[in-house]
Specification:
Elements (H helix, E strand, L loop, with lengths): L1 H10 L3 H23 L1 H9 L2 H4 L11 H22 L1 H51 L2 H6 L2 H27 L1 H15 L1 H10 L1 H37 L1 H6 L3 H54 L8 H42 L20 E11 L2 E12 L3 E6 L5 H7 L8 E6 L2 E2 L5 H6 L1 E4 L10 H5 L8 H10 L3 H5 L18 H15 L3 E5 L7 H15 L3 E5 L11 E6 L2 E6 L1 H7 L2 H8 L5
Parallel strand pairs: 3-8, 3-9, 6-7, 7-8
Antiparallel strand pairs: 1-2, 1-4, 4-5, 9-10
Helix pairs in contact: 1-8, 2-6, 2-9, 3-6, 3-14, 5-6, 6-8, 8-11, 8-14, 9-10, 9-14, 10-13, 11-13, 11-14, 13-14, 18-20, 20-21, 22-23
């Protein structure tokens, strides 16, 4: 029921469209029944029944809601009797035209329901996908270390597609099929309560089949969706690492793994389709058996009462026609229940993301960070991933306008220290202060406005150079963008490109060299003009010439800024105001380059390995 309430909530966000769908469905049900019920006078005229030749009295409306429908039926019979006596062929033509109009209106409203339904279901899909995408942007970095990106893409694509089907099924399950069943049953009871009761005794068999298949379908559907997430992940990883796959001749290995997982997905989805599609032929078979039982029982009633006192022949034929249509909404409900059961697995997977703990929370009344005048301080900071500490009682400060460098072996905690400052992760023990203000007391947006980041991997987007430099700063002028590029030593190579600043650089900037991409990242940081700068091994992956150009750009960027530098090549941080040496999450040494070299400790050892002797 919770899943159904969620689908209703999605749909009735657009009440106007939802009510138009419901209204068209109601009118479709009514005219569908009328198109069938009008066959009774058709049969009466065709077979010239005794009831038709009797002189009928014009009915009188006695008031009341229920009496109104009986009055309409009696009045129509009165008109038809009168017409059939004076002009039987004219009466037959009138009935045929009435049936044709009823069929026309039925299909007009049926298409109207589909018309508005298509708008509603795609609006719901759009909203859910928007919500998933927005949530994926808000989730902490730790979420992406635990979850596969491909699985998240599968939830945005195939799982959301299941919700689209569920919206249609929900509207039919609640607002069309039950109404159709009630109206059809009302007409059947009006014609023959005894035969209708006999019919209803046979229907629970269909419900039992629906229940058994639905539970099994939900289990298989969830397995299929999870497997689809694994397939998406393999695709994403393969396309991202295609260079290495080709270089190591691993195409056969990768293809074999993909085929294996894709085959598992195919088998699970095929199994789900077969279970879902099984409900329709089973319902039809059961329906045919029920129909034959009704024909036998109803035929017995007519044969036992040949005078027509219990049931007339034409009413019995109409009863069979209407009852056959009663099975259609019952089968429709079975199909809708099957679809909703299948979509429930997708709903659960979507809700897992939407309800995921964001971990990085805003305070209710955040303070506005002042202009940095004193320092940024790490105060007894400890941090762990799971149970293992990666930082232990880290304390140091970054004075305004000074450069602090972090060095140490891989896994010593350098990047974690840098990630804590913009609150990519939150400090678990201790605090980080900005001129004495705990950064948790400030809004995340305000905090990150103070920080610029240049990472080892240049993260660029499939857009123009201008759009990449002005990323997040859409109001920047062309002059400001060009000035930032000049400071970053990027202007000259940009002007040599075919379209200059309007050149599209391809996915992840793959049309540029490593050095060019890095200088683009520096230009982006220059344009932001942040008071605090984080450089995460910004030159470690470059050749000597590119490193020189990038280092010069970095020196321009760091001038008079408060900087936290993670160094791989120690030669790049010799002029740092303070160098902090980390090992296994703890500070081992700190001081200037000269001071640390005199200590003959860890820093001296690392410097010697890189050929630095003084």
């Amino acid at each position: 029921m919770k899943g159904l309430r969620e689908i209703i909530g999605y749909s009735f966000k657009y009440r106007g469209t939802a009510f138009l769908v419901i209204g068209c469905n109601i009118l479709y049900v009514i005219f569908n029944l009328l198109s069938l019920a009008l066959f009774v006078p058709f049969l009466q005229i065709l077979f010239n029944n005794d009831k038709v030749t009797e002189v009928a009295k014009q009915p009188v409306y006695e008031g009341g809601f229920l009496n109104f429908f009986e009055y309409c039926s009696d009045y129509f019979s009165y008109v038809m009797q009168d017409m059939s006596q004076s002009d039987p062929k004219g009466a037959l033509l009138f009935v045929c035209i009435s049936v044709a109009i009823a069929f026309l209106l039925k299909n007009v409203f049926r298409y109207g329901a589909v018309w508005f339904q298509s708008q509603l279901r795609m609006a719901v899909v759009r909203d859910i996908r928007d919500a998933l995408f927005e949530k994926s942007l808000r989730l902490p970095l730790s979420y992406y270390t635990d979850e596969r990106k491909g699985d998240l893409m599968a939830r945005m694509q195939s799982d959301v597609g299941e919700i689209e089907v569920a919206v249609i099924s929900m509207l039919e399950l609640i607002f069309r099929e039950p109404l159709a069943i009630v109206i059809h049953l009302g007409v059947l009871i009006y014609w023959s309560p005894q035969l209708t009761l006999f019919s209803l005794i046979l229907l629970p068999f269909t419900a039992l089949i629906i229940s058994v298949i639905g539970k099994s379908l939900k289990r298989t559907a969830k397995q299929g969706q999870e497997q689809m997430g694994l397939v998406y992940s393999m695709m994403e990883e393969t396309l991202g690492g295609i260079r290495i796959i080709k270089a190591f001749n691993a195409m056969k290995q990768v293809l074999g793994s993909f085929k294996h997982e894709n085959l598992k997905h195919q088998k699970l989805i095929t199994k789900a389709f077969r279970k879902r599609d099984l409900s329709s032929p089973l319902n039809e078979t059961v329906g045919a058996i029920v129909m034959l039982c009704i024909v036998w029982y109803g035929g017995s009633l007519i044969l036992d009462n040949p005078d027509g006192s219990a049931f007339s022949g034409e009413e019995f034929v109409a009863f069979i026609i209407v009852f056959s249509q009663l099975l259609r909404p019952i089968q429709g409900m079975a199909r809708s229940v099957a679809n909703l059961n299948k979509s429930k697995a997708s709903q659960d997977r979507i809700n897992d993301v939407l309800n995921a703990d964001e971990k990085i929370y805003e305070v209710e009344n955040p303070v506005k960070l002042p202009e940095l005048k004193s320092d940024v301080a790490y105060n007894n900071v400890s941090f762990r991933y799971g149970e293992e500490y990666v930082l232990k009682n880290i304390s140091f400060s970054i004075p305004t306008g000074k450069t602090i460098a972090l060095v140490g072996e891989s896994g010593s905690g350098k990047s974690t220290i840098a990630d804590l400052l913009p609150r990519f992760y939150d400090v678990q023990e201790g605090s980080i202060s900005f001129d004495g203000v705990d950064i948790k007391e400030a809004s995340i947006l305000n905090l990150r406005q103070q920080i610029g980041i240049v990472s080892q991997e240049s993260i660029l987007f499939n857009a123009t150079i201008k759009e990449n430099i002005a990323f997040g700063m859409v109001e920047a002028s062309d002059e400001e963008i060009m000035r930032a590029a000049k400071i970053a030593n990027a202007h000259n190579f940009i002007m040599e490109l075919p379209e200059g600043y309007s050149t599209n650089i391809g996915e992840r900037g793959n049309r540029l060299s490593g050095g060019q991409r890095q200088r683009m990242s520096i230009a982006r940081a220059v344009l932001k003009n942040p008071p605090i700068l984080i450089l995460d091994e910004a030159t470690s992956a470059l050749d000597t010439e590119s490193e020189y150009l990038v280092q010069e750009a970095l020196d321009n960027l760091m001038k008079d800024r408060t900087s936290l530098v993670i160094a791989h090549r120690l030669s790049t941080i010799r002029n740092a105001d303070n160098i902090i040496v980390l090992s296994k999450g703890e500070i081992m040494e700190s001081g200037t380059h000269e001071e640390l070299m005199k200590l003959k400790g860890t820093y001296h050892k690392l410097s010697s390995l890189q050929g630095i002797t003084e």
